[in-house]
Sequence to fold (645 residues):
Amino acid sequence: MKGVKKVKKLRNLFLALLLAVSMSACSTSEDGTAATFKAGTYTGTSEGRNGELTVEVVLSDTAIDSVTVTSHSETEGIADPAIEQIPASIVEAQGLGVDTVSGATITSEAIIAAVTSALESAGADVEALKAVTSETTKQEDSEETTDVVVVGGGGAGIAAASSAAENGAAVILVEKTAALGGNTLASGLAMNAADPELEGTLDALNGQVDTLKAVLDYDEAEFGEYADTLTVLKGQIEEYLAGDTSKEFDSTEWHIIQTYTAGKRKDLDGNEISGQFDLVKTMCENSLDTYHWLGEVVGIELSDTLTSPVGSLWMRGHNFATKNGVFEASQEYIENNSGKIYLQTKAEELIIEDGAVTGVVCTREDGSKLTIHANNVILATGGFGANGEMVKEYNTYWPSIPDEIKTTNVAGATGDGIELGLQAGAKLEGMGMVQLMPTASAVTGLLEDGLLVPSQYYMFVNQEGLRFVNEYAERDVLASAALSQTDGVFYHIADQNMIPTLQNKATQEQVDAMVEKGIIYKADTLEELAELIGCPSENLIESVEKYNSYVDAGEDPEFGKNVFGSKIETAPYYAVIEKPSVHHTMGGLAINTDAQVLNENDEPIVGLYAAGEVTGGIHGGNRVGGNAIADIMVFGRIAGRNAAQ
Fold:
């Protein structure tokens, strides 16, 4: 953490000096006339990515003395560079014509809009101030040489860079946005890992034993390469059923089989797709060890809480103490072990010599070029869920994707790594399989705007107040069912007892703030809740009563939900308005178990590795909730180790 604190201290000192210099200046209009202000302190608000953002602007008679973001709901980590840099840039320029921050464009624009509002209330000439721009000094083009270059600073990127550094390689990580984190920071960050020792201390949930009994009827003849794994699993289940079934069961084999069955799908042309056995096996077998490696070697603070994210199918989601802590600790580890991190540096082109990848050509934020020569390149750029045109171009799974559909992805998830891989002749795998997150906010499209409780607690009703699906099913099943409801909108119903189980660790105050924004509805009775969401009260009450009886029985005769949490019975009651958003792209660059990128002949491309959502072949047609973090961390670690060696 010392390295991170030092960086922050130097940055804050720089901003303070910048502010001191700029306060002695005054803005000028295009004709060179000095601007004048009505001295005072003013506030302005605007709408950010996640909600309302407020700034405080202090003016003297002739200068913008300070700009401070006083409140916001933006995603921690991703929005931080904009919140720090944009106010300082406005003060430095003494105007509004400043550049937005890469990866935080919406937040940047929201800050500028809020400052504009504050200046308007002060009677300033806003149009003249918009014409005042900040000047950027372009760096000289430069070249560097290293052992391994990692492209992308999300979870796969920091795992790869940490692993390469651990194995003695000099590493350079380049990230096109202004902060580490990417989609990983915007995710629930639960990492699936079968952990029989830990799970054996937890009470079994209603329905889990019956779920396991059903596995005994599975036919190995239908499981192809997974048949031997299924046979081992059946033996494990029989041994468990003969013993104490009051505690939870899990095994690596159970994780493998659930990953396979949940991902086995057919596309629109009837072609079957499923996770490749060797890749799935590698992920599941290495996930727990990799999770502990992140804590013991990289220094990330872990959490002892197990969760079950939506569509995870089992209670095996391992967590981290904080989201930002994952990247702060990783940055410190990388930089303390011969590593460099360059932000706002986009890899544009692979260097290819005699068929081998030997580096990358990057463009910095100021337009200058950085050429990095390396023994090996690791692509960890994430998926393309924020690239709507690309999603629709490749889609071969959904009959149609609504034009107005939102995304849970950060702005940087645009498929850059796919384009880079194609430059080297990479093979693409499963590109048409796109996952929709059923439980995204219908208001913002984001995952965190709601009650992120483990799947066993979910109860969904449509706009008529009626249940319509098994809430513990796979994500594509939930999304498909949701899209068939009126306007594709439904409600997640919860009670007060579920607040302590929130996976996004939202406090009661934060939940109440979402109530104020209209993202969540809150009422003291089910009748009042029904009125708020506009459904017949008798429908909602009957749905809740039926659901509670199924929780008691551990069996759902209507929709087949097979694992349950608690009943919905303690006021106040909540309803979250939700609608599917584009969440994950299962397809990408073909890789082998060594994380080497493959060409069209299934041969490794010399010098090129990949990990995370930029790859394909692991999740088949539907990703299990919690498997993304397992995927990116496991294969990121493998890619880094192999690229270093």
User: Anything to note?
Assistant: The chain has three domains: 2-130, 143-180+265-434+585-644, 439-579.
